[in-house]
Specification:
Elements: E1 2-6, H1 10-21, E2 25-29, H2 33-42, E3 58-61, H3 64-68, E4 73-76, H4 80-90, E5 98-101, H5 114-121, E6 128-133, H6 137-141, E7 148-151, H7 155-161
Parallel strand pairs: 1-2, 1-4, 2-3, 4-5, 5-6
Antiparallel strand pairs: 6-7
Length: about 160
């Protein structure tokens, strides 16, 4: 299964590693050419997890359409202050894929859950699963036991992501 990950930080890389370890294609979308080069050529995220060698199934591109095209799952791990602009860019290519909202922090002038922002920006009844955690990407990449929580209005979608 091809999965798209929108974001550019350590959690983005850790989720990609987990997906690739489970034989899924993890397509990272970055806005920095250096990320693409480091991930595709050197198999590492030099800025955030330089010691973690990335799996062969982890890919990176600047091209949002290439990353999102033919995916079943889109993981949004953008910083909360960039979520609105990321959704604005995604809307053109969104084709009812399951959205996994893995955005950390809380920066909203509207004091709404970030899941509400996703639903308002894309469509009201999109397949949406929220991933919440208190662990660190470094733990996940090293396979240190940790926990995350998945929440969704749709149990079938939550099971798919699990």
């Amino acid at each position: 299964m091809k999965c798209a990950l929108l974001g550019a930080w350590s959690w983005w890389t850790a989720i990609a590693q987990v997906l690739a370890s489970n034989n899924h294609e993890a397509w990272l979308r970055s806005i920095k050419e250096s990320d693409v080069k480091n991930i595709m050529q050197y198999r590492e995220n030099k800025e955030y997890l330089p010691w973690a060698e990335l799996k062969d199934w982890v890919f990176c591109s600047l091209n949002l359409e290439e990353v999102v095209n033919h995916t079943e799952i889109i993981v949004l791990s953008l910083p909360s202050h960039a979520l609105r602009s990321g959704l604005d860019q995604l809307k053109k290519y969104y084709n009812n894929q399951t959205i996994v909202l893995a955005t950390k922090w809380w920066r909203s002038n509207h004091f709404l859950p970030l899941s509400t922002l996703v639903e308002e920006f894309l469509w009201k009844d999109i397949p949406l699963v929220v991933l919440s955690w208190s662990s660190h990407a470094e733990e996940v990449v090293r396979w240190v036991p940790t926990g995350v929580v998945l929440a969704s209005k749709d149990l079938q979608q939550a099971e798919k992501i699990k």
